[in-house]
Amino acid sequence: MKLMLKRLCAERPRDWDKYLGPALFAYREVPQESVLFSPFELVYGWPVRGPMTILKELWTREITDPEVRSTYEYVINLRERLESTCELVKQNLEKASRKQSRIYNRKSRSRKIKVGQKVLVLLPTKANKLLMHWKGPFSIVEKISDLDYRIDMRGKLKMFHVNMLKLYVEREQTNVCVSAPDHKVGFVATVSVIDLENEDTDDVDNYESELIETPVAVAKETLRDVHINEALKANETVKVQCLLDKFSHVLTDIPGRTNVLQHDIKLTSDDPVRFKPYPIPYAMLDTVNKEVDKMIEMDIIERSDSPYSSPFVIVKKKDQSNRFCIDFRGLNSITIFDAETMGNIEEMFSKLSGYQFISKIDLTKGYWQISLVDAAKPKTAFPNT
């Protein structure tokens, strides 16, 4: 019955109560698995002619003629039919009970709860009576039998079956005191810091896709990091080194700037996007100021009085170093999506058949190498400390 009500509420959420009558009729018409008779037949002595029975009679033309009997004969036959039905129901219930008990005992185990122990009780929720969850803990007051216990539920004594109970185990209270006289005492502050090592991987990937990392100002990678194949001849190695020296200005992790194109940000609304800055601890203000000064020196950003404002955060990487990032999720939510499709990499590789050499170029922070048009610059503003 509960499964029927759940299905009814899911399929007809607005008017499920109007279908309770037909649902009850269908439930009482179907034979029960244990007794092999329908509730209608057990009460009235004959199977009810429901919609499916009438449809079957119309299709098969198995319509029996009504019998002409006296009232006395009808009552006697009905009584005999009910008695024989009850006898069959009793036998079927005994068989079904033995079968169900055998199946249940395969995985069941004996559980004993002592008086005074605390338990959780499986009860329906207040919002949904068909949804059960564990509530408690409550104390065991009395053991009525091996399967039934009386529980004190905030002053009211109620009896529950053992299957509705689960032993509640309290956590051990441990007091750990660590003394470190040789260490300096720091301070505690509310920090808007993201720890990538402890965050859930999927959430971090989704969150980081909206964060814009600032570029590096000091080169950590140069042409000296290029690996030259040792199988090359001496003159070939010299040619490769000369080629690397010629383009040494691009073989670095410091982003350059292209003059081929500029990027424009088109929005669905002209209302400026403003978000309150995230709280930054005093100890990290120097890090933030250094990052801002570095980007101004590299001519990546400029001071602005824009009405837009996207907050920035400090992301703590796995090596415990800090990373200054800008959270553009608010701006991205009103940005017009560019529907141009990206190329299929399999199709690109199929066009390279027959070529002897395939080169792969990894651009350093291409986001910072493309400048913005003048109209789009105010939209990327962030607050300074």
TrEMBL record:
GO annotation, biological process: DNA metabolic process
InterPro entries named among the record's database cross-references: DNA/RNA_pol_sf, Retrovirus_Pol_polyprotein, RNaseH_sf, SH3_Tf2-1
An MF annotation (GO) of this entry: nucleic acid binding
Gene3D superfamilies linked: HIV Type 1 Reverse Transcriptase, subunit A, domain 1, Ribonuclease H-like superfamily/Ribonuclease H
Residue ranges annotated for the Tf2-1-like SH3-like domain, each copy included: 123-169
UniProt protein name: Tf2-1-like SH3-like domain-containing protein
